[in-house]
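Intended use. Records like the one below are meant for learning the mapping from a protein sequence to its folded structure. Do not use them to infer anything beyond what is encoded.
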Amino acid sequence: MNTKDYISLEDEFGARNYKPLDVVLNRGKGIWVWDVEGNKYLDFLSAYSAVNQGHCHPEIMRAMTEQAKKLTLTSRAFRNDQLGLLYKELCELTHSHKVLPMNSGAEAVETVIKAVRKWGYKIKRVPENKAEIIVCENNFHGRTIAIIGFSTDEQYKHGFGPFAPGFKVVPFGDAEALKKAITPNTVGFMAEPIQGEAGVIIPPQGYLREVRTLCEKQNIIMILDEIQTGLGRTGRLLAEEHEGIEADVTLIGKALSGGFYPISAVLSNTDILGVFMPGDHGSTFGGNPLACAVARAALSVLTKENMIENAAEMGAYFLSRLNDIQSPHIKEIRGKGLMIGVELVPEAGGARRFCEELMKKGLLCKETHENVIRFAPPLIITKQDIDWAVERIEPVLKK
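Structure written out for the chain above:
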């Protein structure tokens, strides 16, 4: 079978809720992937930051295969020998006190919504069914019904209502707007430290510190969705570290398994996660031994192999190389670590055609919000690799 055959199968039998580039991949190693025709590509998306450690990292693979031979799933009806170890290692690494594992980023977001609402009723004493959570414009926290209900992207919402109440939306990066939106019923504020899906939008310096102070004064839970930004992507373990703060609740996922297995986690403290009693919340696969073993290995190689430090160094280098490109198509280049967006002027004709041209030259990336090219290579990338990429990016952006 060739590329067209595989694409025909997807088009005939699959739902059309994605619009991928027309490349059919079947192998990956490190920063490189190969298609069914044998063509080699540099992966500059990292599965939306799920493959921070690179494709098929041997140590993570070894942990997965060894655990798969022993025990894969018990459900939470019983305990397993990997769960407590993951809890301890995650808490020590992130300075958290409690962990609640789930499977996907969206599940982690749903979990924190439930936890913070219950905290509001039980601890803050907000009147029943009156709890409010404040979120930001252009947010992306997942695609469940509750989550898309507070999205400001009309495509995510159109045709899917009615939606759950209890959410307010304020501009991202505007602490004063947040302050004005707070009421006695506000229990939480949730944001991404950098908005990825919106086009790598970075808030003003000091914004998160202002929010941290405001939440403490108003007795509001500060929730940071670090599912994309966390685990090294921005050159720090968590993006919140750039402003020297700690959120009350941090959500991680994606790179938590290095791309091998779905796992996410809610990181918090006893005060917040302690509101859950047996039966309040759960997941058959959440915290399964296979996922936990994989996550432990993924965290180990992330720190042991200095991937976070490399992301900071290579991100700065890559940004400097991109900023040297003189192109009438470029409106703005934004980024922190290896999370970078190149916004094009509207007259450029959209970012999709640039991504398609880069694919032909052996570099895979993806457009977001029509006019932004998102670059997010694995954190193991080198200067030589970046130079190779820029040699292809520059002529495409100038064309």
